[in-house]
Amino acid sequence: MASINLVDAFQDFKEAENLDRPTLMKVVEDVFKTLLRKKYGSDDNFDVIVNSEKGDLEIIRRRMIVEDGEVIDPLAEVAYTQAIKIEPDFEVGEELYEEMDMLDFGRRAILAAKQTLASRIGDLKKTELIKKYNDRIGEIISAEVYQVWKKEVLLLDEEGNELILPKSEQIPQDYFKKGENARAVIERVDLKNNNPVIILSRTSPLFLAKLLEIEVPEIMDGLISIKKIVRDPGERAKVAVESYDDRIDPVGACVGMKGSRIHGIVRELKNENIDIINYTTNNQLLIQRSLTPAKISYMKIDEDKKQVDAYLEQDQVSLAIGRRGVNIKLACELTGYEIDVFRKDEEVSNEFDIDLDEFSDEIEMWIIDEFKRVGCDTAKSVLGLTAEELERRTDLEIETINDVLRIVREEFEREEEAS
């Protein structure tokens, strides 16, 4: 018999996909049963026997021996005269088992079967890869940098599977070189042109959460819980943690002795400042902690509007806002409140003031609305801040801010002269 030797195919298949033997045998069996159905119209009387260890394949045909001239179904029955040509000892009523010669199918059919087998192997490879990485979403993986492009980095895992780290998922300060190892969290599995694409991330809050799990045994053991993480990748992160054991200080445990635990994470995140905050259900206290490193003197909370006016000493305002407004933005995300910070002397008093809407004939309404958005709805509240502070807190150009300050200041001067 001209059998198909599949040793190499089996070996490559098993090593590449790590599929179990029953799955492997079922795929090959299905492919050749399809071949039989195309040639004979049915595979009911055929047995496909796959030996995955030896790497060979046999197809056995079963037919019942009947008297000459009584063959009704040629697929299931064979005449006695034909049967004894194969084995002289056969008798009517016995079952004839005949090994098929692969050449009977024709070279073209065999080639098509091999191509179908290769296609099925490819499909199973994709399915296994999707399942494997879908089960690992949220895990940290260390992979080798294989290629660095402008918009993404290609990495290879231990089995040679391709992983993609898009530019949007990289920390701005990240720099990769071919051959080095990089750590990231498995973000998701996408399908592109019917091929699985494993997407990694270094900007996800989950990446920081997993790094903390690795460095802080109390988190891994469940003694400390991470309630929420907010990040501006490469710039700052705030982590709210809670301890389930009164004897454990969650902040101290996460930071470690002299910062030993947090330093490694900070280096991994390219010197991202990480504020560890003790979580509490007391919203006022949580807001105070979220604006760290600034210290709030007092605040006014509007629970209905989820709005907070926080009043601080003059030297604390810039700390609360942070560089490019990152600190206050993260505090808002962490607490769920819209926080506006003011100097203590900015609080509304009974002194003469002018509503900012009164300047609508000189200042465009969208500019006034932008000032209102950051809590500056009167002339005094605008003049109480420097141009630099207003630029940080609003989305306005410095020239526009200077024009507004000039208009408001001139109005106050006119009012003082009139009085």
Automatic annotation (TrEMBL):
Q: Which domain of life is it from?
A: Bacteria
Q: Where is the NusA-like second KH domain?
A: 285-346
CDD domains under this entry?
Answer: KH-II_NusA_rpt1 (cd02134), KH-II_NusA_rpt2 (cd22529), S1_NusA (cd04455)
Task: Spell out the subcellular localization from the entry.
Answer: Cytoplasm
Transcription factor NusA N-terminal domain: residues covered: 5-126
Among InterPro entries, the record links this protein to:
KH_dom-like_a/b, KH_NusA_2nd, KH_sf_prok-type, NA-bd_OB-fold, NusA_N_sf, TF_NusA, TF_NusA_bacterial, TF_NusA_KH_1st
Pfam family, any one: KH_NusA_2nd
Tell me where in this chain the Transcription factor NusA first KH domain is found.
202-279
Query: What keyword terms does UniProt attach to this protein?
Result: Cytoplasm, RNA-binding, Transcription, Transcription antitermination, Transcription regulation, Transcription termination
The entry describes its oligomerization and partners as:
Monomer. Binds directly to the core enzyme of the DNA-dependent RNA polymerase and to nascent RNA.
Query: What is this protein for, i.e. what is its function?
Result: Participates in both transcription termination and antitermination.
Q: Which family does it belong to?
A: Belongs to the NusA family.
What's the protein called, per UniProt? Answer: Transcription termination/antitermination protein NusA
What lineage does UniProt assign to this protein's organism? Bacteria, Pseudomonadati, Bacteroidota, Chitinophagia, Chitinophagales
UniProt gene name: nusA
